[in-house]
Amino acid sequence: MTAMADKTTREQIVDAADQLFYTRGFEATSFADIAKVVNISRGNFYHHFKTKDEILDAVIAARLGQTRGMLAQWEACGPDPTRRIRSFIHILVANQPLIMRHGCPVGTLSTELAKLDHPSLKQANGLFTLFRVWLRKQFALLGRKADADALAMHLLARSQGVAVLANAFRDKSFVQQEVRQLCEWLESCAPKPATSNR
Fold this sequence. Notes:
This protein is mainly α. It has helices at about 1-25, 30-40, 40-50, 50-75, 80-90, 90-95, 95-100, 105-115, 120-140, 150-170, 170-190.
């Protein structure tokens, strides 16, 4: 029973920290900020995490787990690689209000940790790597094995650019326009069927 309660409290701390790191930034978020959201004492807080870096590592691990789950769901529900890649593109629409207000959660964390020269940057960048590897696999299945990684990186870069500008300009129509263009670009990526000379 105690172990279950401890686990629940720990998960609540990680969830609260995840939201605060996203909305306020890692450096601007204090132990007190997280403890206030979870409504626990500082002593109880330190029972679970001794440093903010420990919380950061737990947040990154949780995000990695959630991302793996999301990618597995897209694999299960998407009947073909084009549909699966389109699911990735449509994150920009599904999370549009949050992205317009706070930017991309993956991109903002990696950018902040890079500025801080933080030792957890490599782990945070693992989120981008997960998307890169998954997208590369989808483009290979689409018939673009030779340039699958280049296409994956292009799509990652374009989506990050859209997120940054969406956050800067708060322009909903811009996001929707970019998503349409990305979907059109994706359709153009499929190899054209060979034409018969007959």
